[in-house]
Design goal:
heterodimer; A: 236 residues; alpha+beta; two-stranded antiparallel sheet; B: 137 residues; 3 helical TM bundles of succinate and fumarate reductases
Chain lengths: 236, 137
């Protein structure tokens, strides 16, 4: 089938503001949305700029807004985006961050927030001679959260993040959950100091855009709620 | 967060507070919660401002009489709707945050929506009956 591919283009050296351009691309229902962008770049306009690396939903490079919703371009199929020939698929950069060019956003704020929650193991005692063991039951608690690929689809779908650029956002706080609930970690209080704050957990209004956007199907709101409960019980 | 980053040209349009985004159940529930919340604050202000006349019996009676006008009956019905929705969705948020019911959030929204509809019909019946008899009675 033939599809219209509508892309929000922006070149800071030439354009005053972003604008929409429409291209035509052949597509198979089982193609990924990324294939549409690649067609445009290879055959229509080589200046089109977007991030992509593995194209298999692992590296998390190609998160963008597709048909009005944040998705991973390589992980969504054409058949799930359109109903038939001549339909339009829209591509825009992730909302809420400055745009560098076309579909590429400046991710520096996103990763500052990530580093702010101390996303590494913090331990009190001396290191054991061999690896730190964890039981399958203990791992079950954090398994869902470990699937995060840091694509940013969630944080950039969050109305709290749009309204408050300092809000830590779902991705960073999911990391805080992942380490705080890790039975091998002793740094819970360090991370609670960061997330139990004005720009942290309490600006999560359970809107669920992050859960909807996550290409890995992580129930982010569920784990942020668990982190809220941890923050409250640490005060008791 | 004091990490140094390179200055880059920024596009105001993509960092605005409000963004166009596909509205799914969760965001719909939140927007309606905000809307009814703000509406209830406005209502409470007007309500308390109205009680100012309590010191003067005649003024108070005149105010209460004016509340019998159809427009206030419609308002009363909307008020009932706002209170019922805000209360039940508040309960939904409590269940999500305190009991971890997040995986059931959509079903919870529609179930409580049905409960809200029943309360609206039962609680709103006297209001609607008054309106019907005013215009058609």
């Amino acid at each position: 089938m033939k599809l219209n591919v509508k892309i929000k283009r922006y070149n800071p050296e030439e354009d005053e503001a972003p604008h929409w351009e429409t291209y035509e691309a052949p597509a198979d229902p089982l193609d990924s949305a990324l294939a549409l962008l690649l067609h445009v770049k290879w055959y229509e306009d080589g200046t089109l700029t977007f991030r992509k690396s593995c194209a298999h939903g692992i590296c998390g490079s190609d998160a963008m807004q597709i048909n009005g919703e944040n998705k991973l371009a390589c992980s969504i199929l054409v058949q799930d985006l359109v109903s038939g020939d001549g339909d339009t698929v829209t591509f825009a950069p992730l909302p809420g961050s400055p745009v560098i060019k076309d579909l590429v956003i400046d991710q520096s704020r996103f990763f500052e927030k990530y580093r702010a929650v101390k996303p590494w193991m913090i331990t009190d005692g001396p290191a054991p001679e061999r690896e730190r063991l964890q039981s399958p039951e203990d791992f079950d608690m954090i398994e869902d959260a470990t699937k995060c690929i840091m694509c940013g689809a969630c944080t950039h779908s969050c109305p709290s993040t749009w309204a408050d650029p300092d809000y830590l956002g779902p991705a960073a706080m999911l990391k805080a959950y992942r380490y705080n609930l890790d039975t091998r970690d002793d740094g819970s209080n360090d991370r609670l100091d960061v997330v139990d704050s004005k720009d942290g957990l309490w600006k999560c209004y359970t809107i669920f855009n992050c859960v909807q956007a996550c290409p890995k199907g992580i129930d982010i709101t569920r784990w942020l709620s668990a982190l809220k409960r941890q923050a409250v019980s640490s005060q008791l | 967060m004091a990490t140094e980053t390179t200055e880059r040209p920024q596009v105001a349009t993509d960092t605005k507070r409000f963004q166009w985004y596909k509205v799914r159940t969760g965001m719909f529930a939140w927007m309606l919660h905000r809307l009814t919340g703000v509406a209830l604050v406005v209502y409470l202000t007007v309500h308390i401002w109205g009680l100012r006349t309590l010191s003067d019996a005649d003024a108070f009676n005149a105010l209460i009489t004016s509340y019998h006008a159809p427009i206030f009956k419609v308002g009363e019905f909307l008020l009932l709707g706002a209170v019922v929705y805000h209360a039940l969705n508040g309960l939904r948020i409590v269940l999500i945050d305190f009991l971890g019911w997040s995986p059931n959030q959509k079903r919870l929204f529609w179930t409580l929506g049905a409960v809200a509809a029943i309360i609206m019909v039962v609680g709103g019946y006297p209001i609607i009956a008054t309106l019907v008899s005013h215009f058609f009675g």
